Fold this sequence. Notes:
Structural class: alpha/beta
Amino acid sequence: MVGTPTYKGSYTGFFKHLIDLLDPLALEGKPILLTATGGSDRHALITEHQLRPHFGFFMAHTLPTVFLPSIVIFWTMKLPPPTSTHGLPRP
């Protein structure tokens, strides 16, 4: 599981620094669950546009699902109602 807070639409500098310390072959073939936090749902694209390509360089197997807790969850301490099931609209 790899996670980072979202800072200006990308991962933080500290996260990048830690990843730069890894051997390029250290994550080869390993399953990686991507997670990120952000101020709103608009930050959800960080996993697809920033993290997934970054771990693709390491030849890691990024899982097709991600975990994206929103700041709204932490403010209200309640999970929002599900808006979709397996990516399909609810009837």
